[in-house]
Amino acid sequence: MSTELLAPPALTAPVHIMELDKNDSDHVIGVFESLSEFDRYYRFFRSMPVYSSAVLDMLTGMNGTDHVAVGAFSGGVCVGVARYIKPAGREGVAELAVVVSAPARGHGLARRMLSALDAPARINGIAEYEVFVHPQNRPGLSLFRSLGFELTFNDGAFEGTMAVPRAKSL
Ligand SMILES: CC(C)(COP(=O)(O)OP(=O)(O)OC[C@H]1O[C@@H](n2cnc3c(N)ncnc32)[C@H](O)[C@@H]1OP(=O)(O)O)[C@@H](O)C(=O)NCCC(=O)NCCS
């Protein structure tokens, strides 16, 4: 097989990463609607052919403090979303999640979006991220390990934590 066939397709326009708010809900839903059955299973750990209103409320519940999301936009189209959500009653910890539309994968967007969450996390008192990754989700496991998460298998999922990276000095 030629290596050209393995290369990710080019994104048609430069990518901008920006924080999302409630007005961006349609963009967020657009990305999640684009996900395959497998992607949804990896993201939610269960089959999800249709998003329930509870899931849609969660996906669009950005509040700029306990729930911060960033989107990757190419040519005005949102092609990825990363977020942290602080679970109620736990101080200083937030759960990370990220999705990228299939045609936009392999260009470092997940990495860029997750990194863009660090500053708002620090500002909002988040000291540690945690993740839960499906054991068959090789891209997800590789992504979070490459960021520095120590993942251990527990109760059907890989889970792990990592300190929120410090601000880079200029
Ligand atoms: C996992 C996912 C977010 C990766 O998005 P992406 O933009 O393609 O990822 P990036 O290009 O930023 O890659 C970052 C790292 O992830 C890992 N990775 C990404 N795609 C991979 C693949 N197909 N196979 C193995 N590792 C992969 C690599 O470690 C990569 O680093 P490298 O490029 O230096 O090798 C994307 O595949 C996706 O949306 N999957 C469905 C949802 C999901 O599983 N989310 C994660 C759990 S919340």
Characterization of the model:
There is one protein chain. The protein is of the alpha+beta class and 170 residues long. The protein has a single domain (14-163), classed as Aminopeptidase, CATH 3.40.630.30. The protein contains seven helices and seven strands; from the N terminus they run H-E-H-H-H-E-E-E-H-H-E-H-E-E. A seven-stranded mixed beta sheet has the order 1-2-3-4-5-7-6, sandwiched between helices. A hairpin with a 7-residue loop joins strand 3 and strand 4 (93-100). It is globular. The protein starts with a helix and ends in a 7-residue tail after the last strand. Residues 1-5 have low confidence and may be disordered.
Can you give me a brief rundown of this structure?
The model is unreliable at 1-5 (pLDDT under 50). This protein has 7 helices and 7 strands.
List keywords for this structure.
170 residues, Aminopeptidase, binds coenzyme A
Classified in CATH, the superfamily is Gcn5-related N-acetyltransferase (GNAT)
Q: How much helix, percentage-wise, in residues? A: 25-40%
Rounded average pLDDT: 93
Distance between the termini: 44 Å
Task: Tell me the strand order in the biggest sheet.
Answer: 1-2-3-4-5-7-6
* Number of β-strand runs: 7
